[in-house]
Design goal:
This protein is of the alpha/beta class and about 260 residues long. It has a domain of about 180 residues: Phosphatidylinositol (PI) phosphodiesterase (TIM Barrel, Alpha-Beta Barrel). Strands 1-2-4-5-6-7-8-9 form an eight-stranded parallel β-barrel, surrounded by six helices. Helix 1 runs parallel beside helix 3 and helix 4 runs parallel beside helix 5. The structure holds SN-glycerol-3-phosphate (G3P) and magnesium ion. Magnesium ion (MG) binds next to strand 2.
């Protein structure tokens, strides 16, 4: 079961153009020609998987508080678009299942980032994987990632054949290769804005495709491409789609620089 990841992955949909982690943002990425999107999934207080990034409601809704303290029936009433712009007033926070329906409708593939509220790492992964294995028939079009190793291990235990990614923050654990090997990951996802060329070479040496987040500047993307990065999470899929060197090899990965 080969992973067919593309070079350009819409970050939280196309979050430069529509409010992040909404169906509107996913549609916007598809409209621009993106084949893959990334979005973040966490749980409401009553355990419903929804697309949302922060632990608090403050930045991207019209109210304040913790998502972990908010019931799904109250999440349904939130406005997740007015912070972004008047034309998005009334935009809703989608459930994971609603997002999967849009992926199917638009023929998209997705990197689903498990983004648990603190202390809910195992539970969040269990709910996400339960929904995916019930609702989705093509595991090679899904990549499960998380900064939480507990979440990734839970996902592996529930669905060992589904593709996983290790997300690396600015500081990498000394034993990241051991963690990545244990979790049997299909890609390494790193912060493209802080990574050094040596780091990228180490990641490439691991032998899996390397993806970089979050890159909106085409010059930076081309530099990272020259270092051997295979794909990019971007808020502006249209910009990178029209500025990257196109893949030449059969697995869709970017060409490697000359030695
Ligand atoms: O998965 C790549 C990227 O989304 C990780 O960081 O904070 O944007 O979810 P964040
Ligand atoms: Mg994310």
């Amino acid at each position: 079961m080969a992973l067919k990841i593309s070079q350009v992955i819409g970050h939280r949909g196309a979050s430069a153009y529509a409010p992040e982690n909404t169906l509107e943002s996913i549609h916007s990425a598809a409209d621009m020609g993106a084949e893959w999107v990334e979005f973040d999934v966490k749980l409401t207080k009553d355990g419903i998987p929804i697309l949302f990034h922060d632990d608090t409601l403050d930045r991207t809704t019209n109210t304040t508080g913790l998502m972990a303290d908010t019931l799904y029936e109250d999440v349904q009433d939130l406005d997740a678009g007015s912070w972004f712009g008047d034309s998005f007033i009334g935009t809703k926070i989608p459930t994971l299942e609603e997002a999967l329906d849009v992926l199917l409708e638009r023929g998209l593939s997705a990197n689903i980032e498990i983004k648990p509220c603190p202390g809910r790492e195992k539970e969040t992964a269990e709910v996400v994987m339960d929904a995916l294995t019930r609702c989705w028939d093509e595991p090679d079009r899904i990549l499960i990632s998380s900064f939480s190793h507990v979440a990734l291990e839970t996902a592996m235990d529930m669905a060992p054949d589904w593709h996983r990614s290790l997300l690396l923050e600015e500081e990498w654990p000394d034993n990241w290769q051991d963690i990545a090997t244990h979790l049997d990951v299909s890609t390494i996802n790193l912060n493209g804005n802080t990574v050094t060329r040596d780091d990228v070479e180490d990641a490439i040496d691991f032998g899996k495709p390397v993806l970089a987040y979050t890159i909106n500047d085409p010059q930076k993307a081309r530099q990272l491409q020259g270092w051997g990065i295979d794909g990019f999470f971007t808020d502006e899929p249209d910009t990178l789609l029209s500025n990257l060197i196109r893949p030449v090899n059969s697995n869709g990965a970017a060409p490697k620089p000359d030695p």
